[in-house]
Structure formats: C-alpha cells, structure tokens
Design a protein that fits this description.
The protein is α/β, with parallel strands linked by helices. It folds into 2 domains: about 220 residues, Spore Coat Polysaccharide Biosynthesis Protein SpsA, Chain A (Alpha-Beta Complex), CATH 3.90.550.10; about 70 residues, no CATH class. The chain is built from 11 helices and 10 strands. Strands 1, 2, 3, 4, 5, 6, 7, 8, 9 and 10 form a 10-stranded mixed β-sheet that branches. The radius of gyration is 20 Å and the shape is globular.
C-alpha cells in the first residue's frame, strides 16, 4: 500500500485517497461541526459520505445546505448502525475507508497521521487513533472482543467491563485486540474481501475475521480527534446485545465455551428476571440463545462486494444450550 502522496502523484489528483463514512442518527449539531472540522483539517484528498440513519432532527436538510460536496444517503427508517455503515461504504471510491462517529474534530491532521502510518505499515491493514474528551482518552476506539469472563461480568452485574480493556495504555499504542467503528481506517480491498460488517454480531467480529486475512489491528496514539459530544455511558444490557454476544460465541468460540456462555446468561436471566427489565424479557423470550445460521451470507446492501464475504468452512453451525 502506497502513501497518500504517492497515490496522488501516480494518478488523478482529484481522486480521493480516503472515503470518510459517518453514520448519524439525531446527531445534527455534532455532525455539522465535525464535518466542518474534517474539511478544514486535512491535506489528504478525501470524500465524505454521511448516512442519515432515520434522523428526525432535520439532519439531511442541514447537511445538504451546508456541505454540497458531501454524499448523503438518506434512510427514512433507521438500520442497525453496522448495516448503515455498510450502506455508506458501498458509495465509497477511495482505496481506504475511514469510519467515523459524528461529532469528532481532528486535533492536527489526524487523517494524515493515520494514512501515513498505514503507508509505512501496510501489514497492519486496520488502524485507529484516540478520541479525546476533556483531554483524556475516552477509551472508545479500542475494545476487546466478547469473552467468557466478560459474559460472566454481564450476567452477574459485576462493576467490571474487561472488554473495554481498562489496563491498556492507549498513549503507547501498538497492536491491539480489536477496533471499533468509532474511528476505523481500513483498506478497501480488505473491507471488500470481508464483506464489511456482519450486523448480527458485535463490531469486533470484523477485526477477528480480518486477522484470518493476516491483519494486525493497530492503535496509532498520535492520531487524535476531540469528541464534541459526551461519550456513551456504561454498557447497558439489551436483548439485542445478548443476541450479538451469543452469535459471536457460536461463530468464534469453542462449542464448550459457547455452551458455558449460554448457561451463564440463561441462569442470570432467570435469577434476575424478578428485578425487572431487561432481564425479565430476556427470560421470557429466549430466542437470543438460538444458534444463528453461520452459513448465511453477510447482509451487506452493496451490490459490488465480491463473493469472498462467504463464511469459511470452519464457521460451522453450533448448538446453543437450551434451558
């Protein structure tokens, strides 16, 4: 993979090097400030793609009025955020994709920092920086994939979140377990080979599958963006989150680990159903325990994506524990 200067000098100077994809749902003010900062804050040729994911705050009209050069994809009804990111990426032309949350403002030329690092370390293939709030890393660009220990913490309500990697020194950077779509630079060829996100699983699934293609996801600590909005709070237990966790277990863990996770969560749902939602619904409707169809294609609404998105033979169907 070439540096951005080499890409520009060897081809069309007007062609984008990075396609920036942002999914926004009722985040108009932060989105507009972030887009303005991105346009003014980098020397790298970029194109900007905004997916208005069913907003009701007039986001689409505001973007059309203020940023005529932005590609706008309008959804009347919201999609799963990962599916919306796939939809935006399908519009991209550049050799690199940069997924960004709305309301992020570059500190210095963060995009150039990421792309130049990627040009010098093409073996990594997935890259992120740090998003800051009040000059402190908000810890939202790098997370670990779901684990059995993390599942136990969710089930028991322990005030721990090991999958947020609380002991990781983000100021040092280097190779990390998995990246989030909050600030994610990825080779377009790798993205197409993976078929983008699988919305049925947590976002970490993309990194896990990328590792099977030889990727080494990396945190570039000097690539900073300031968060213009408050970061999300503690992770909440939801039925959708439980379903994604179990789908990830069936896809990537051993059968024994997946069964252990299922029994742990079903026991928690039974024991904690008396405390109210969401555990009451989790106990009453246990469809989230069911094995997903791992042979089904990734639901990506991008007609040009290649057939490599099909699952590998190792990703076979596994049976979930039943209460």
């Amino acid at each position: 993979m070439q540096s951005w200067e080499q890409l520009v000098s060897s081809g069309n100077r007007t062609a984008p090097v990075v396609s920036i994809v942002t999914v926004a749902h009722n985040a108009r003010e932060g989105l507009l400030k972030g887009l303005a900062a991105l346009q003014a804050g980098t020397e790298v040729p970029t194109e900007m793609i905004v997916v208005d994911n069913g907003s009701t705050d007039n986001t689409a009209s505001a973007v059309r009025h203020a940023f005529r050069g932005v590609k706008l994809v309008r959804r009347d009804a919201p999609l799963h955020p990962l599916a919306a990111a796939n939809l935006g990426a399908a519009q991209a032309r550049a050799p690199w994709l940069l997924l960004l949350d709305p309301g992020l403002e570059p500190v210095g030329d963060a995009i150039r920092t990421l792309v130049e690092y990627a040009g010098g370390h093409p073996e990594c293939r997935l890259y992120t920086g740090r998003t800051m709030r009040d000059r402190a890393d908000d810890g939202r660009t790098v997370e670990g994939p779901p684990t059995l220990w993390g599942t136990v913490c969710v089930a028991t309500g322990l005030p721990l979140d090991p999958e947020r990697l609380p002991r990781l020194d983000r100021a040092i950077g280097g190779e990390v377990p998995s990246l989030t779509p909050r600030m994610l630079l990825v080779e377009r060829d790798l993205w197409d080979a993976l078929g983008g996100f699988d919305e049925r699983l947590p976002a970490a699934d993309l990194t896990v599958r990328a590792r099977a293609h030889g990727a080494r996801p990396v945190l570039v600590p000097d690539a900073h963006m300031a968060s213009l909005t408050a970061p999300p709070g503690a992770r909440e237990v939801t039925i959708a989150g439980l379903a994604e966790r179990m789908a990830f277990a069936h896809r990537h863990w051993s059968p024994g680990q997946a069964r252990a996770a299922g029994w742990t969560l079903i026991a928690a749902a039974l024991a904690r159903s008396f405390t109210g939602e969401p555990w009451r619904s989790a106990w009453q409707d246990r469809a989230w325990l069911s094995t997903m169809d791992t042979d089904a294609p990734v639901p990506v609404p991008a007609p040009h994506l290649p057939a490599q998105a099909k699952r590998s033979p190792q990703e076979t169907r596994r049976t979930a524990p039943q209460p």
